[in-house]
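Structure ticket #2291
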Amino acid sequence: MKPEFKLIRNSKTTTLAITGELTVAASEEFKKQLSLFAQEANDLELSLVSVSSVDISGIQLIHALRLAARARQKKLNIALPTDSGLLELLARTGMLRILAGEALQKIN
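Resolution: structure written out below.
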């Protein structure tokens, strides 16, 4: 399923909520969306709760967002589903440990 990206802004935080698949087939669009998202004035929240699948290209782009947020001195929260393969993949690739420095929210 092609991913959909929705920006939600409030006074302190901008959320990028993603649904669908974050695979190499969608990596160009995901990269573009993350680039725009990283430029937001507010702190950032990346919601991956409705992501159905992800591959290594998606994980690399999440890591790039993390680095961009740090470079801009922005707070980055990442909302993850607890009942999907995404959490397991992040753990197996070591990204869960790397992202542990960010505020991770595990959502059922």
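Closing remark: Residues 43 and 77 are 8 Å apart (CA to CA).
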